[in-house]
Predict the 3D structure of the following.
Amino acid sequence: MSQHRLDYLDQLESESIHIFREVAGQFERPALMFSGGKDSIVLVHLALKAFRPGKFPFPLLHIDTGHNFQEALDFRDTLANTIGEKLIVRNVADTIKEKNLTEQKGKFASRNALQTYTLLDTIEEFKFDACIGGARRDEEKARAKERIFSVRDEFGQWDPKLQRPELWNTYNGRIHKGENVRVFPISNWTELDIWNYIKRNEIELPSIYFAHDREVLEWQGQLVATSAFIQVDDTDKVAVKKVRYRTVGDMTCTAAVESTAANIDDIIKEIIATKTSERGETRIDDRVSEAAMEDRKKNGYF
Amino acid sequence: MDILRFITAGSVDDGKSTLIGRLLYDSKSIMIDQLEAIEKQSKNKEDGEIDLALLTDGLRAEREQGITIDVAYKYFSTPKRKFIIADAPGHTQYTRNMVTGASNSDLAIILVDARNGVVEQTRRHSIIASLLNIPHVVVAINKMDLVNNSEDIYNNIVIDYAAVATSLGLKDIKYIPISAINGDNIVEKSPVFHWYQGESLLHILENVEVANDINYTDARFPVQYVIRPQTEALHDYRGYAGKVVSGIYKVGDKITVQPAGVESTISAIEIGGKQVTEAFAPQSVVLHLSDDIDISRGDIIVQKDNQPSVENELDVLLCWMGNKPLIAGNKYLLQINSRVTRAVVKEIEYKLDVNSLLKELAPEQAGLNDIVKVKIKTATPIPFDSYKKLRVNGGAILIDETSNVTVGACMIQ
Ligand SMILES: Nc1nc2c(ncn2[C@@H]2O[C@H](COP(=O)(O)OP(=O)(O)OP(=O)(O)O)[C@@H](O)[C@H]2O)c(=O)[nH]1
Ligand SMILES: [Mg+2]
């Protein structure tokens, strides 16, 4: 029977494809959240395996904060084009104008919290009943607690104390009007699994994932790219360094890591050797409080 | 490298979360920033030691109360295996969350506090492990440091548990003395248990054989979605997308589509867009049939010479998870793999007393976390197998149609 054994990556892949097809089978108007980051790129590849030669039974959706890396945006557009799937982009800047929202102030003024408004408006606009996201449980302690089908009320809120039981691979996606489900097909993947999968399948990524020269400022031990979105003060230490990104989020809250890893094999070596977690090393937004992620999720965040 | 999914179970405060924390810590799977975060949190406590349970107790309410409320999923790997851990809550109130974590587990670690021995919740979780047919069980007798690592105390608990295991029909049980807090017998064998002959916990987890748990005999393929591109180039393309939950399918195999009973032949198999000649569990694939027949989501494709039962009266062992009681006559939706049908619970035959394992016959109703035997009638016949024989096609959930909540876990007999 030994030829009938799937290795761990094949098992994870099959589980994720199964989840994708459950979404297709159970929901009328799903959407796939796509940012141009590595996790959402892997989602797209899994969706290709789940539905080709058919079309995706959902559009790609990006909530653009306006603070994204240009490389990620370009990659997003190119990929959507290449695979010939519909891409919907909604801008946080528009929501801010329409709703007269107050932007954060300060050095790294972030729109991370405001994007939830745009997401909820977009869900309402298109009547999306399921939003597929690339969150992984190994990323953060609140995510470690979330179901694969995570039901949100009409305000997008997650109630961690009242999650539905989720048995076997039988997913219950039934909801009332106005509610929606966040679905996480790669819940059980780790950062290293993602990189190994990218390698095995020769998946292309935006260039910022690989070592390159970039002007950065050092802030509390983290390297933040200088850009129009952050305030650079005279006292800041600014220098050009060889860096790469471990995650791709907003330029205001994503830090780079110093690295010379220019290809996947080198990156995998670095990830295996690292002593810091992905979010710990690269996210400025999680540092606000112990329960930052849990609070954001309770308020409708992914 | 393969995957082992396991759960930690047992009574409140028996040290489940601490054990997971220890396993992650000693296998060097914790990052510096995560450690710093829990160190900061632990300082609020008197003893000054880091509280490893904080690694999995990720919700605010859990940290405040020092208990686990819902399952946390944690990951680590060794050169041998990738591990997916479900850290379950011990509180009776949250048993349904434990069931959630247990349903996908290949192995259960059942913790027992050496000072308290086998208690009601140990039995409850063991019953659930046996109902869910978790193939492997490790009984970890924890907090041995608090009983002077006494071999006698350990042996007595083993004898007590063995009696429970026998009455429940649990298979493949191993016993191990540990101290989660000190890390004894977790990653390395500890000299404090010089009288213990077995291996360390991690060694057991790395070596338990799980490949044989997959059933390659009874082929089942629930259809999730039909792929029909309807483009000019692919005008006649019609692929049935789904996961081979058990067994093997080959091009040319004679198949039956249930519950309709229609027969056909597999004309092609695709995996990720590539043509292959066979597919096996647990691969997600696309099947093509040589005849143009009406198949939709919820149907199941099986080998012609190996059929499931197709019936509308089911004998079911049920874990009740609803806040509202279950009363005979109540109607629900029953979902088995991708198939959903209306169902009525016709009769509650008995309720299991967790302590005595005795059956209370014909109870009025079942409440949250009760384990009952029921008779269920479905609106239309459904294809299923006995859960004991084939976990992947014998488990179903009950959904309350008004709240949409999952209220029951069915193990079809
Ligand atoms: N002395 C000693 N204390 C332990 C040991 N393992 C755990 N503890 C302590 O027991 C208490 C409960 O530990 P947890 O790990 O939170 O227990 P749990 O089983 O996860 O509890 P729930 O998830 O709420 O059911 C904590 O104070 C731990 O420090 C051990 O091996 N020896
Ligand atoms: Mg716990």
In short: Residues 8-26 of chain A form the longest helix (19 residues).
